[in-house]
Amino acid sequence: MITGIITFLTIFAVIGSILYGQRLIKTEKSDAVFGNPERAKGGIHWVIVGSSFLLFTWLYYSWDIAKAFYPKSANELCQVAKVNESLLSLKYLFPIEERSHKSTALIKRENINISEKINIIQNLSGLSNEDKAKFVNLLNKTRQTIPLLTNEKYIEYETKNTITNLTNRINKLTEEFPKESYPPALSEAEENKRIEALNNQLGWGATGMEVPPLPESKVGMKFNAAAKELNLISDEFFSMRNHNPQYLRLLKEIRDEIKEYKDALNEDQTLEMTYIKEIRKLGQRIEYESVFPPNALDGMELAIRNFDKVQKDQQGSIRIKDMLLFPGGTIVASGPTCAEDGPGRWLPKPSDTFRIFGDLLKPSVGFKMIPMIWYEMMGVNRIVGFFLPDWIADVMPGKYPVHTSDGTVEPNFKSKVLDVVTGEFEAFKIPVPTGHIWDSFLRVFLGLTLGIIFGVPLGIFMGLNRFAKGFFDPLVELYRPVPPLAWAPLVITVFGIDNVGKVFLLFMVSFSIMIISARAGASGTQLSKIHAAHSLGASRWQILKEVIFPNSLPEILTGVRVAVGMCWGTLVAAEFLAGTSGIGFVENVARKYMQYEVIWITIFVMGMLGLIFDVTIRKIIDKTIPWRGKG
Amino acid sequence: MKKIISFILASIVALSFSISVANSAAKEVRVAFFLEWATPNQEDKVKKAFDKALGVPVKWTNFATGGEMTEAMLSGDIDISFSQGLTPFVNAVNAKAPIKLVDIAVIYGMGGTTCVAAKGINKGNASSKLDGQKVAVPLGTMADYVFKETMRVVGADISKMKVVDMNPEDGSAAFVNGDVAMACLFGGKSIKAAKEKGASLLTVKEAQDAGIAGIDITSVTNKFLKENPGMVKTFVEVTHDANARYNAGKSDMNIIAKDAAMDLAGTKKQMGGFEFINAATMKSKYMNKGGILMTYLEVMGNMFATSENPALSDYSKVVDTSYLP
After folding, report:
1. How many domains does chain B have?
2. Which of A146, A288, A416, A563 meets the CB 3.0–4.6 Å disulfide criterion with A513?
3. Which of B16, B65, B165 sits opposite A589 (nearest CB)?
4. In the predicted model, what is the mean pLDDT of residues A569-591?
């Protein structure tokens, strides 16, 4: 219902905005020339078109539109898929969807295989001439079994009969299939059972039910019944082999000969053993396949083609729905169950995705017992303990208390300080955020902040000082081009699998970017400005603070934007490697359990977080350096 | 404007077509397998016996986990997954992936997949010592199953531990570093490295008594099964021949070790913990109604079920014994 409304809304939004945009072009008089950034200002309507189009594409390719407007279509397509599946093996025998008969392809292949084998055996040095003659003879005999299978005159009456019988059954099905009376009515008990099963069947896309398999409509029942009959026919056909007495006699002769030869072999004649086994396999391969005389199955082929045509006609509107509303794939059947195949499988429907996202956001559910984003109460003592270094207690005068003779420990000033700096005291609690999203966010934030704190001063220093440039340049330039992920295994081994390793990895990423941008900013300061400041009597520190730093700010903030993007990319991969929590961890685990909805949720969350980061930084840029591009 | 709209429409049409490219007839068979997981049929693989028996070239691709095998099967790049763990298979069929189980590849005790705990942690004190500790587990694999079962046996509470999702190689490295108190692993090298700093929580015997065993299976895509049943039959048969040869002690271990990317001693040790059963045993004890495999499928199916992908009501639908020799 909601999906349907949204679908219409997106269509209206796209059309409306396009029309509005066109009118705007006609009415708006702008004197900005080409190349003037003024021309790119505004254009909210194009944002609407862009996002609506994206949403519509998602709705369409995830088959959510099909689900919203025709909730029964998947069930009907499932029945059609059952028929297609039951026909799959039979169709594969004939050049219906392939280029040649399966028997033709097989005979062609095996003839080549036999000739090749003969060739190999004759040129083999390890075999005696006697063995060679024996093997070639056996192979030739194997080759002779093929005509016994493909010759019309050897085919047994019984086999022929079965083929005719099965063909008739297909023809009868073709005849009955379009009729109103097909499938025949069920007995009352069976009908009740069917209705009861139907009532218990969940709808398409309900939790845990991908595609409801039991037929729900009249057409669906038709296809379901036909699929059952076709499966029987198919099974019967493939249990039959064209093994006529002549063929069996020759096969037995070959078998006996091989067995006799094998029995005579002793342990160390491995080469002979290998070859004789391969020859036996060759014969066996032909034996397993359904090889028939070229025209023996013509009737059957025709019957299948006819049925295929009739069933396609009978699909009617289902077929149009399949073509229009199920882009890029369809529903496939596997035995009695059906599944989505194509984008429907790996592109979850927006409605499902948001439903599951809503579930995941519930703090009591979360993912792997950790909420996505929530808060927990944390004592202030722990925060104090985290920030204050422990050595403060060590440098205090005095000694730590020693236990007394009556078995108690008397705390003194030094031990009390230790309690404070390690957070071992009672304090009120404050809520702090927690969960996967927060963990990922915090890692990126810490890595980025550390990178800025260390990278920017060093970068400016390198831009201004010969020693710093020469000393740090090789170091920075050597590690900068290495893709951050190349460090990952090493960092995880050295710093462990906890946050320290991941934050350090992100620090390395942002550090080099910040150095480069700060350095470029510092060395790019216009000399005239520095001279002006100098002649006005500015000190070194004032020049640095009032001239060089503001001048390099645009470069630095652009560097921050680049670093944010790089940090996200690296973070997800780092969380793949050793996952405890975080968005990357969620995605990696969801992949293992094939939870495609969750995978898309994580991608969506990452996109949104990246966007929030970027928008924030853009706002900061606008606020802090309004002179950008105007200097 | 018109150009933009027509371009967008054309892209949609092009996308629809490009996604639905059909697979052509089997000109080759594409098989997925594991390294560091020695099986007798690797001798046949090296000697091209599979290619000869099937009559078409066989392309072998190695994977790191069974889940990746499923992904490749779904995208149509792999026809047969040899020695896929039962856990990833169960996850795949719970998610309604169109694949079927046709054969049991390997049955192995805790020698092949095991949880190695740090020194000082043993079966008796694990329930208290592992509380609040970090453990490395490759989630969604057989090692995950072994982890859950082992914790059940020693009486430890999983919800009190911090489970870190790591592949066996990384997990073993983290364990050696002391970052995790326990690592559940598979693969010869990883276990060997981890055992230098700790010991298996359960011995092979103890695990066996507790009913923990690993089963690796052969799975085939539904499409390939329907189109080339003969090839699947032959593939299974060659594998069973190789198993019979190994059970008779006639396998060339050097070739197997080389192909499995392990040393000879390691290979022999690993395969010593493996069991390759014949078709008759499979049919009578494992894949029959209420058989061992069927029970495992059901237990695991419920163990790894999620709200989106719940356990199947009947796992016999995804097992087909008709391809066994």
Report:
1. 2
2. A563
3. B165
4. 83
Whether the predicted pLDDT of B213 surpasses 90: no
Contact B25/A at CB under 8 A: yes
From CA A19, how far away is CA A16, in angstroms rounded?
Answer: 5
Distances (CA, A) of A336 to A213, A585, A613, B1: 7, 35, 49, 49
Task: Report yes or no: B294 at the A interface, CB cutoff 8 Å.
Answer: no
Sign of CA dihedral A444, A446, A449, A455: negative
Pick the CATH number of A435-624 from 1.10.3720.10, 2.40.30.200, 3.40.50.150, 1.10.1040.50: 1.10.3720.10
CA-to-CA dists, residue A362 to A205, A355, A369, B79, B304, angstroms: 21, 11, 11, 40, 21
Contact A208 B222 (CB under 8 A): no
Give SS3 for A550: helix
Regarding whether B204 and B171 lie in a shared domain, the answer is yes
Q: Which of residues 136-195 of B touch A (CB under 8 A)?
A: 136, 139-141, 159, 162-166, 170, 173-174, 177, 179-180
Mean pLDDT for A405-409 is 83
Please tell me whether residues B101 and B220 are part of one structural domain: yes
If asked whether residues B237 and B184 sit together in one domain, one would say no
Of A92, A110, A594, nearest to B91 by CB-CB distance is A594
Measured at the CA of B197, the angle between CA B195 and CA B199, to 5 degrees, comes to 50
Per-residue pLDDT band at A631 (split at 50, 70, 90) = low
* A187-237: pLDDT as tens digits: 888 889 988 988 888 888 776 667 888 898 888 999 999 999 999 998 888
Q: What are the sequence ranges of the domains in chain A?
A: 2-61, 67-196+211-347, 374-433, 435-624
pLDDT tens track for A294-307: 888 889 999 999 99
| Interface predicted TM-score (ipTM) | 0.73
Contact A337/B at CB under 8 A: yes
Restricting to A residues 44-83, those with a Cβ less than 8 Å away from any Cβ of B are 53, 57
**Same domain (yes/no): B149, B134:** yes
Average pLDDT in chain A: 86
Domain final residue, candidates B159, B176, B209: B209
For Cα atoms A515, A517, A521, give the angle at the middle one, nearest 5 degrees: 115
Q: pLDDT digits over B148-162, tens only?
A: 888 988 888 888 888
Judged by a CB distance cut-off of 8 A, whether residue B220 touches chain A is: no
**Looking at the complex, does the CB of residue A288 fall below 8 Å from at least one CB of chain B?**
yes
Place of tokens 């400005």: A529
Q: d(Cα B83, Cα B66) in Å, to the nearest integer?
A: 8
**Token digits of residue B256:** 């197997």
Work out the minimum CA distance from A390 to partner chain B, whole angstroms: 23
Rounded distance, CA A284 to CA B230, Å? 10
CA distance A282 to A21: 71
- What residues in B contact A588, CB-CB < 8 Å? 165
Contact B208, B72 (CB under 8 A): no
Place of tokens 């995941």: A360
Per-residue pLDDT, B111: 67
C-alpha distances in Å from residue A122, one per residue of A32, A128, A145, B48: 85, 10, 21, 19
Is residue B95 domain-shared with residue B117, that is, in the same domain? no
The shortest CB-CB distance from B308 to any of A57, A207, A498 is to: A207
- pLDDT tens for B43-54 read 999 988 888 888
Q: What is the pLDDT of residues A356-397, one digit of tens each?
A: 888 888 888 788 778 888 888 888 887 787 778 888 888 888
Tell whether B256 is within 8 A of chain A (Cβ). Answer: no
Expressed as residue numbers, the domain containing B220 is 26-107+214-318
CB < 8 Å to A592, chain B: 65, 67, 88, 91, 139-141
